[in-house]
Predict the 3D structure of the following.
Amino acid sequence: MTFIYPIETQDQRAIVACGIVFSLLPTIVVGLRVLARRKANRRLDTSDYLIIASCFFIIVYQGVAISSVLIGGVGFHVDDIKNRFGVKSGTTIFLKHLIAIQVLWAVSLSLCRISIIHLFTKIFVVQSFIVTARLTYALIILWALAAILSAFLICQPFAFNWDKLIDGGTCGNAMVSWIVTGVLNLISDLVILIMPMPYLLGLELALPKRLVLAATFGIGILTCVISIIRITTMTTIDFNDVTWTIPHTVLFSALEPCIAVTLACIIILRPLFGGRYSPDGTAAFNGSSPEVLARKNSNRRFRQLNDNSSETRLRPEDSYKVAQSGT
């Protein structure tokens, strides 16, 4: 029979509470994203399905995190698990949870990032950006594979992750692996945050859109800050008392993909706040007062193709004129 640990410490309460909140928040924003698509008469595309999949893995992560408290002993000292509660297996159950936590964290984040980049490629239809996006796709996939493989291959045989009594078992330096993965994760966050900046700087936006972009950029910065904090919490983990020293890492690992999904959804929720849309998904707007204008002194000019839609596509104005003259 599985032993259920009491919830006594602040860290335990935080993990359980955040697990519930961080399951509800991405579910709500993803639901709003789907509603925005429907209101704009747009079908769900690849970026939407990727973000839905990311949301699913986030919810599973939160379930595993809560389970690590209830049956894994997170929040208690290892000595308490063995002596006070009489659980002779000690940290075995939690260490099994830890592998799942690493994999779910990497999968949820990578799906979310690919979704964001895919959405960007629909907005910035410039060849240089498309090439950059494809390279970033590859880097994110390689990062995810490295994070997942390190979770499964760091100890040989695999069961040595939780059973150190196996003869001939060996483990690599898990701490170094986690920190390297975390740093690469931070770099990925920064790349995605910076990618659209050169194109956005060449635009003059109306105040409402400036506020939306500012909020989006702010959430992106927050994601990077959370990633940095997560890395610092990993340096305090003591594997001799892992259930007591790891709660903060579990918490920030739960928060990061949740905020990333929120960022991925908030940038296309505009249809929920007004606007008229035709059956083919295009927006009705007054062409005499466009909200996006090219800077007069910019070397790269853009023309807005769909003013009020959830995706504002931007491409060089010269190519727009060529396409227009050919019709």
